[in-house]
Amino acid sequence: RKPKNGNNNSENSLMMTEQVEILQGLQSQNLVLCSPPTDDDDAYAITIARREDVRSKSRHSAQFQNLNPNLSASRDVLSICGAFILSNDLFRDAIQRDISGDLHNWLRGKGCDKSESLSGRISFSFCDIGCKDLDFVANPRHLLVEIIEQYNRKCVPSSF
Predict the structure, then answer these.
(1) pLDDT band at 65 (very low <50, low <70, confident <90, very high)
(2) Distance of CA 100 to CAs 67, 89, 119, Å?
(3) Is 76 within 8 Å of 151 (Cβ atoms)?
(4) CA 80/CA 63 separation, integer angstroms
């Protein structure tokens, strides 16, 4: 939580920033989940993403459930279903605890039949190209990001 104004004796007093206010706003809109500080936060993120992955796939028609996006002639955002974790964490501890191997396959993009599928984890970086703000860059080699970037290049008019 954000410290009260003038509370400079608290360890949290350095956290009084615009970013904390943004984070608290996202949390109040139920867009951020905070795990208990003594629990394994990876377990919460993975559980939520895997649940939403199943829900998302069940909402799509059979043609999209069986679609292999790497072989698809129509590689568009609508052909992709599922949920993803946006993280640079490789979740090694969680993978070691998962005796089924399903988590490793989901995170790395291996289907249950060992075929290629979308990776459940998307890594990211921030890029400073001399502008006022940092650019957020999701892994451009993740198929979902690649498709979104292709769509943006087609649909967003160039300023040149």
Answers:
(1) very low
(2) 24, 20, 17
(3) yes
(4) 11
